[in-house]
Amino acid sequence: MIFASHTTIMAKSLFAPFIFLIILSSLGCSKSNSSNSCESLPPAITVPEVEITAIEAYLSSKTITDAIKSDKGFYYKIIEPGTGAVPTLCSSVSIFYSGKLTNETVFDGTSSTPATFTLNQLISGWQLGVPLIKKGGRMILYLPPSLAYGSRDSGPIPANSVLIFEITLVDFR
Predict the structure, then answer these.
(1) Where are the domains of the chain?
(2) 68: closest CA among 127, 139, 122, 119?
(3) CA separation for the pair 152, 68 (Å, rounded)
């Protein structure tokens, strides 16, 4: 009998930490939290070398020598860094922008009114690039297809296109 009691006590003490972890992890899964949640991790995409080479060829052909290579596989140029804090993926950003292809065809942009988007709803290149500037900042992003629209056409943007965006971060919240 003593052996059986000792085993029962030992079994309970061994499982107690696991039961605690199960209860603790279930607390973070309530519906009220998930409806207002925001994915705050940047996208983890590996850009193929051939796409990086395509951006480098474009930069070279335009004699752009001051673009910075990000460790995430895109190039950028900060024209004006802006001031204050930087936006997060959960920020609602108000921006002026112009998007063009490497043949200089403008495919999208704003005019007199900034566009407002939640950053984590945009293409990966913007999610990674826009937080490099602050409110009032201006930049140019040179994005490989893997961080833009990839191997699918998107309206006037052909599949596998390197994209160039001029962006001004007007505000965010």
Answers:
(1) 2-35, 49-172
(2) 139
(3) 27
**Residue 139 predicted with pLDDT over 90:** yes
d(CA 146, CA 50): 11
Locus of tokens 């962006």: 167
The per-residue pLDDT for 41 is 76
The Cα 55–Cα 131 span in angstroms is 21
Give residue 148's pLDDT.
97
Structurally, at CATH architecture level, domain 49-172 sits in Roll (3.10)
pLDDT of 113 above 70: yes
- Over residues 77-106, the mean pLDDT reads 97
Q: Give residue 6's pLDDT band: very low, low, confident or very high (50, 70, 90).
A: very low
Q: How many angstroms separate the Cα of 49 from the Cα of each of 18, 117, 144, 164? A: 44, 30, 10, 18
Distance of CA 82 to the CA centre of its chain: 19
